[in-house]
Amino acid sequence: MTVDLETGTRGRTRKAILDAAVRVLAADPGASLGQISDAADVGRTTLHRYFPDRAELVAAVMQEAGRRLGDAASRARLDEGPGLDALLRACQALLQLGDLLTLMFTGVVSIETCGAEHGFAQALDDACTRGLADGTLDPRLTPSWLQGVLWSSLYLGWSELRDGTTPPHEVVSQLLLTVRKALAAPAA
Amino acid sequence: MTVDLETGTRGRTRKAILDAAVRVLAADPGASLGQISDAADVGRTTLHRYFPDRAELVAAVMQEAGRRLGDAASRARLDEGPGLDALLRACQALLQLGDLLTLMFTGVVSIETCGAEHGFAQALDDACTRGLADGTLDPRLTPSWLQGVLWSSLYLGWSELRDGTTPPHEVVSQLLLTVRKALAAPAA
DNA sequence: CCTCTATGGAACATCAGTGTTCCACTGGGT
DNA sequence: ACCCAGTGGAACACTGATGTTCCATAGAGG
Which of B30, B144, B152 sits opposite A153 (nearest CB)? Predict the structure, then answer.
């Protein structure tokens, strides 16, 4: 019988470590493994049992990030409807990623690497070109800039959400409002 | 005769180290002092002669950041004209800060600390409230969010500028266009 | 009761970054 | 020629993070 990494005791501690890693590394990319194991309520020895290397831990975080990125993408149904609306749905879905956004933004995990394997990057690209074609996105903006606005706005939204001074629903509405205004094609 | 830290040989190497620190720390906040001294074409010993501590080096970087932030603010004349136009002038001025934007955004230097001493934070706040009062800024957005959009867009613009795939004038135009669209009050 | 699995802790060697000291070199100014 | 401020490099001790090994313990299940 092979060991299942997703269920049972093993799976639970593995997940605890992974979650703690995301949380701690988002707050401080240079955090020590000891800080991570503490946050996971686990001995440093145990952490090394699951992830022999710091590199392997980071790799696992990236893989997890890719998985959740893919989930968010499919939940957002990026291939449906007008391009602008797809991007706004992406905003809402990606905001759920929480600290992972910080990790992707600070470069602890690379958006390209972990977004590519699950076809996320491609889906986002497609939504942008579709939006430029169907006239819902501002033709004066380049695809690269469009996506940049999406990510940086997302990071801003998560920052506001995290420090908790603004109620979540207001963050969402300000985020969607801002992105829609910024990216929408001007009225004909 | 007291030593002048701004001119002569001393001033020049001091500036070289400071510039290198900004450049290197922007690329990697956890960079070693050796990397910084290498980038400054200076021995590690010399670096320690000017900044005994890593902390003192960072403090000096923050002070320099504050100074240049203040310069940019006064150049942008934040207290003149409609609020929205003031913010757009701030965008253009702040974009000149280059790698300092990365440092402020990644938290290596704190915007609050080094922006406060030169009255920059206050000037920006004032421009926002003025813009909300004179009807040029979108009243549905909070002052905190307005400033957040400014900073994150600025960071996006600098990122595009830095990797050099987009010509500078295009970055500036996309930046100003995006920020204006995002923050402007809707047409009555 | 015994066993097996998962764990935490102690101890250890290793390594990189830091901060310090000391010495030798250079170039400009007298 | 001399002096001297400025510099770079070598060497050192110290610290904190890392990765490893070994052992003791707790708990679920036979």
Answer: B152
Same CATH topology for B1-52 and B62-183?
Answer: no
Average pLDDT, chain B: 93
Cα–Cα nearest to A161, from A100, A74, A85: A100
DSSP string, chain B: -PPPSSSHHHHHHHHHHHHHHHHHHHH-TT--HHHHHHHTTS-HHHHHHH-SSHHHHHHHHHHHHHHHHHHHHHHHTTTSS-HHHHHHHHHHHHHTTTHHHHHHHHTSS-HHHHHHTTTHHHHHHHHHHHHHHTT-B-TTS-HHHHHHHHHHHHHHHHHHHHTTSS-HHHHHHHHHHHHHHHHBPPP-
- Using the beta-carbon criterion (under 8 Å), do B156 and A155 form an inter-chain contact? no
| Tens-digit pLDDT profile for residues B30-72 | 999 999 999 999 999 999 999 999 999 999 999 999 999 999 9
Chain D nucleotides reached by a protein CB under 7 Å: 5-10, 16-22
Q: d(Cα A52, Cα A59) in Å, to the nearest integer? A: 12
Q: In terms of C-beta density within 10 A (0-12 exposed, 13-18 middle, 19 or more buried), how is residue B109 classed? A: buried
* Residues A178 and A153 sit within 8 Å (Cβ to Cβ): yes
pLDDT digit string (tens) for B160-183?
999 999 999 999 999 999 999 999
Beta bridge partners of A184: A137
Residue identified by tokens 């149904």 is A77
Cβ pair B178, A148 in contact under 8 A: no
Report domain extents, chain B.
1-52, 62-183
Which chain A residues touch B166 with a CB distance below 8 Å?
142, 144-145
Provide the shortest C-alpha distance from residue B75 to chain A (in Å).
26
Q: Identify the CATH number of the domain defined by range A1-52.
A: 1.10.10
Contact A166 B144 (CB under 8 A): yes
What CATH architecture is B62-183?
Orthogonal Bundle (1.10)
